[in-house]
């Protein structure tokens, strides 16, 4: 890991649609397909990190 790839600061609680928008528009465009650099996304077990759309976005990008 060599620094941040993308960051989003939001006041208050973050909703699933906010996270999906960050992932789709800010983070994934900066990612590369596996096994290139910047090809691994690490998420905690928060409920907003788990749905089919997020999985589809990551799979489409190859991460």
Describe the structure.
The chain has two helices and no strands. By secondary structure, it is mostly helical. It has one domain. The chain is globular. The model has no long low-confidence stretch (mean pLDDT 91). InterPro entries: RNaseH_sf (IPR036397), Tc1-like_DDE_dom (IPR038717). Pfam families: DDE_3 (PF13358). It comes from Cronartium quercuum f. sp. fusiforme G11. This is Tc1-like transposase DDE domain-containing protein. GO terms for molecular function: nucleic acid binding.
Sequence-ordered SSE layout with sheet pairings:
Layout: H1 16-27, H2 52-61
Summarize the structure.
Residues 5-60 form the Tc1-like transposase DDE domain. By secondary structure, this protein is mainly alpha-helical. Helices cover 35% and strands 0% of the residues.
- Low-confidence blocks of residues: none
Helix/sheet category? mainly alpha
Secondary-structure element order, N to C = HH
* Rg value: 12 Å
Distance between the termini: 15 Å
Number of helices: 2
User: What general outline do the C-alpha atoms trace?
Assistant: globular
> Beta-sheet strand percentage?
under 5%
Instruction: Please bin the fraction of helical residues.
Output: 25-40%
Largest sheet: none
Question: How many structurally independent domains?
Answer: 1
Mean pLDDT: 91
Secondary structure: number of strands? 0
């Amino acid at each position: 890991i060599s620094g941040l790839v993308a960051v989003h600061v939001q006041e208050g609680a973050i909703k699933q649609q906010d996270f999906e928008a960050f992932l789709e528009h800010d983070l994934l465009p900066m990612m590369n397909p596996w096994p290139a650099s910047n090809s691994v996304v690490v998420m905690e077990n928060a409920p907003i990190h788990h749905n089919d759309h997020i999985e589809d976005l990551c799979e489409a990008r190859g991460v």
